[in-house]
Amino acid sequence: MTASSSNDDRPDLTVAYTTFNSIRTIERSVRSVLPVCRRVVVVDSGSTDGTVEICRELGCEVVHKPWHGYVESGSIGLQMQAAIDLANDTGWVMLLDSDECLTETLAESIRIAVLANDPTVDAYLLNRRHWYKGGWISADFPDWKLRLFRRGRAWIRPRLVHEVPETDGPTRRLDGLLRHESWTDLQDALTRSMRYARVAGWMPGRRTSLPKVVFNGPWAFIRTWILQGGFRDGWRGFEISCVFGVSTLMKHLFIREAMRSRAGVPGESPCETHESEGSSRPPAEGASPPRVDEAVDSAS
To answer: What is the CATH code of the structural domain delimited by 13-180?
Structure first.
């Protein structure tokens, strides 16, 4: 099945993606949505790994939109809004990251919801759960994300991180899980979390203190490992709990660095570094960053 197959009997839904070198996960994600949508649109930032080719083979409509880097506040959000804007001929839109895919239960819930077209609902929340090293993990779960909405009833607010659709209309939750395959292994999880901890740390207006630097990292580990049940996932849960703890610690160290820089002590913003190196590409696979720092912030 491809997005260009006969689809008159499919729900009145367009699925929108933002991608950059997303070959690892994009095919599985697109195949999971094809049975429940009429169109799949992709805003790509210049992939060189075959992402564009596999998307087109699956029948997706691909549009190139250059990446402008973190120095342009909300640049990732601009990519996401561009993808939403392409979904202009169906009543419903679903915005997914390239490393998210639908389970069978969730796909059926989406199909039923879109076909029902309940006039009292403008958007639906999907329950995302991390998949790591071959299985579900308990960290940051449940994690309800607004992903499915009526065309014109949700938008992206430009930010450096946490770019998600927002709506001021009524919402409802759907059954089933949204599988999130953000990390391939421990090294990948640490690398991504450090990158986005630095970006989050340099966001304007953030402040920290010595107690936060000392205690928030251990608290993030305890929260993930014990309170969220990471211990039930064995070593996989222990690894991700450590990643969340280290990420939180580093975020507060980066906040301290930013505070000292604004006070006149020499320092450097990650945005300035990204641009000075002359890169115009997204910093990681997929134009939407992994949301490790969302869990980190909740422990801050």
So the answer is: 3.90.550.10
